[in-house]
Amino acid sequence: MDAQSTPPLRDAWYYALPSERLKKGDMVPKNLLGEPVIIGRDKEGKAFALVDICPHRGIPLRFGKFDGCEIECCYHGWRFAPSGVCTDIPTLIDEQKPELTKVKVRSYPVQEVQGGIWIFFGDKPETAPPVPVLPGLEGHEPKMVVTMMFDGSIDHSVVGLVDPAHATFIHKAWFWRSPKSIRNKAKKFAPSPFGFTMVRHPPSANSRAYKLLNFLLGKPEGTEIVFQLPGVRYEHIRVGGHIMCHLTTLTPITEFETEINHSVFWTAPILTLLRPLFWPFARTFLRQDRDVISQQQEGLKHNPQLLLLGDPDVQARWYFRLKNEFVRAQEENRPFVNPIKERTLQWRS
């Protein structure tokens, strides 16, 4: 594995923002995939996304006003609909005004699914990995979302996300597990749309978090973990007749910055009562991942040749195979063919 990362996939949906952080009439500026983007919600409640640059003099639209219907540029008052189409240029007399429908700010396709706003940056959304819909949670929104910035590329952040062996060493905490609890693991994997799935299995016996969940909700019915391009992972847990799901999304901000959003869903009312206790644990968990990714950059800046060895690193190798196949399929204008085959992986954690 080369220490240098490959560019992020553009023909893909990326998680941009939790729905709850975008109210009607609001605009939120963000840098995504190295591009300035403004995300807004019109007075009807529909989310939209535009390039955050006025086509007149290049000033960011975020400095202007948005009344829920139109964005007014602060510099010369040019107005734009949420679609990006110009609706008025007040500084021009009527005889000088062009056909306004030809004056546009670039817009991005947007989907709002299960409390998350997703943006598409490419040209062919019909061939892209779909925005995931968490089974059994249709119509639900997350009970909490933790957002954090990683000082690392999308590739190295994804490799950390799918790494099954680091938890024992990075996430050492009384509420998770101890290095002394390390044991052999064997999990069955199967290909799934644009990714792979750790087939439903009993929860880890050496995880205190799972033990607490079983104590609160009852008999565990199994855990399934799904990874999907470009950087989406969700862990779907059935326990005591309820569902708990952890959705983790990685979105490249710049070449060496990646935003992680960790959304947690559940159907058990007792977990809602305990939500204030979950926040510090979730932030601690992500902070540990953030810190090790940041430390990793100190070595990567020397561009070492990296070794991916044995079953613990198979999922990392799968990620690069999936990404390469997706790029080739797009270039050759053909359907994506999943290169992953069913197999059982073994490691210690």
Short précis:
This protein has 349 residues and is of the alpha+beta class. Helix content is 21%, strand content 32%.
Task: Provide an overview of this structure.
It is a single chain. This protein is an alpha+beta fold and 349 residues long. It folds into 2 domains: 12-123, 3-layer Sandwich (Rieske Iron-sulfur Protein), CATH 2.102.10.10; 134-348, Alpha-Beta Complex (Naphthalene 1,2-dioxygenase Alpha Subunit, Chain A, domain 1). Helix content is 21%, strand content 32%. The protein is built from 6 helices and 19 strands. The chain has helices at 154-162, 167-170, 208-217, 269-273, 275-300, 314-331; strands at residues 13-18, 27-32, 35-41, 47-51, 65-66, 71-72, 79-80, 86-88, 107-108, 110-113, 116-120, 144-150, 184-192, 195-201, 220-228, 232-239, 242-254, 257-266, 343-348. The strands form 4 sheets. Strands 12-18-17-16-15-14-13-19 form an 8-stranded antiparallel sheet. A hairpin with a 2-residue loop joins strand 16 (232-239) and strand 17 (242-254). Helix 1 crosses helix 6 (314-331). The longest helix has 26 residues, at 275-300. The two termini are 23 Å apart. The relative contact order is 0.16. The model has no long low-confidence stretch (mean pLDDT 91). InterPro entries: Cholesterol_7-desaturase, Rieske_2Fe-2S, Rieske_2Fe-2S_sf. Keywords: 2Fe-2S, Iron, Iron-sulfur, Metal-binding, Oxidoreductase. Residues 14-119 form the Rieske domain.
Strand content is: 25-35%
Provide the number of structural domains.
2
What would you call the structural class? alpha+beta
CATH class of the largest domain: Alpha Beta
Distance separating the two termini: 23 Å
The CATH topology of the largest domain: Naphthalene 1,2-dioxygenase Alpha Subunit, Chain A, domain 1
The residue ranges in which pLDDT falls below 50 over 5 or more consecutive positions are none
For the sheet with most strands, the description reads: 8 strands, antiparallel
- Report Rg: 22 Å
CATH superfamily of the largest domain: Naphthalene 1,2-dioxygenase Alpha Subunit, Chain A, domain 1
Number of helices: 6
- N-to-C SSE series? EEEEEEEEEEEEHHEEHEEEEHHHE
What is the spatial order of strands in the main beta sheet? 12-18-17-16-15-14-13-19
Q: How many beta strands in the DSSP annotation?
A: 19
Keywords: 2Fe-2S, Iron, Iron-sulfur, Metal-binding, Oxidoreductase
GO molecular function, one term: metal ion binding
Domain Rieske: 14-119
InterPro entries: Cholesterol_7-desaturase, Rieske_2Fe-2S, Rieske_2Fe-2S_sf
